[in-house]
Write a structure and sequence with these properties.
This protein has 265 residues and is of the alpha/beta class. The protein has eleven helices and twelve strands.
Amino acid sequence: MINAAVLGSPIAHSLSPLLHSLAYEYLGLSARYEAIEVKAGELATYLSATDKNALSLTMPLKEEALKVSHVTSEIAKRISCGNTLFQKDGDWNLTSTDVAGFEFALKMHEIEQIESTVIIGAGATARAAVASVSTISKSVSVISRNPERERAMNQASLVEITYLPWELTDQLNSAELVINTTPDRAGDFFVSSIENPAGTFFEVLYKPWPTAMSKAWSESENRVIDGLDLLIHQGISQVEIFSGLAVDREFLYAKMRRAAVSKLA
């Protein structure tokens, strides 16, 4: 039986229990999936006492997971974090489905070979983003407030990264793809920079929606991808790992998307 949960803090808002439960019901599997509050520094203690065998991780646990896993995948090592813990032969295995989540979301919107990408932020989600887009984008720029994160960002990327200071920049308007990976309303700072952007905006947040940046971008009549696409695609990859089954991604995406939009309405 799949005995799973999503861990993080705060976690009450998470749509993962809804989406995973829907997927396992569709697959006809016996499964339990819930949301559990686990704060920074508490992951090892939680794992020592839990009967769970499959875990999704969100803030602030993705980097902490590297310290508690017995087996770590190459992609988790490369991006210095993981969002997926699962039991195998008595060991906790760590990997990341966030990179695949970006890849599938971008492909779904027919974004494949592009000239330039700007990523706002340099945390765990930004590293997953750069690992994904550096396979399709000729140039990648990162707007960061923390130079100490550059080493981990460089390790995640397949191309050389250009770092930009945390200030208003016209590069948001000229890039073919802009990805905002910052939490809460940090991205609101850049709204006044948005003026007739040429590319696509990918906002990793899905609540509250629309964010100030996504609203300003959509008013320019350019494409906006919301965080539900990332959430759903990385979740489908987790479902495949937890269940050991390959799924009809297109069908399950549509089913999950309808459920998520209805819940947020």
